[in-house]
Amino acid sequence: MTNSAKTTENFGARIILVPPRDLADFYLRWPEFRIVATEIAERETLSATEQEVMKWLLRLADRVGPRDLA
Fold first, then answer.
1. How far apart are alpha carbons 27 and 66 in whole angstroms?
2. pTM, 2 dp
């Protein structure tokens, strides 16, 4: 694992995430980042407002397509 890689717990399994190079890389790798974002959104330590914002951010990211990046 490089120094720039990040780890997260996913249902007991460790996932190693390399930070995205740019917005296009983030878009292409959204399925792996979505797992992390979903886990963050479901944390009980977030306030109701924070959970709601995360829910909407996930919905927004799910709707982004290749034409949106041009």
1. 8
2. 0.74
- Assess contact for 41 and 49: CB atoms under 8 A: no
Residue 1 contacts by C-beta under 8 Å, 6 or more apart in sequence?
7, 16
Confidence of residue 1 (pLDDT cuts 50, 70, 90): very low
Angstrom distance (rounded) from CA 65 to CA 48: 29
For 3-52, the pLDDT digits (tens) are 555 655 555 455 667 999 999 999 999 999 999 999 999 999 999 999 99
Integer CA distances (angstroms), 47 to 4, 9, 34, 53, 58, in order: 29, 21, 20, 10, 17
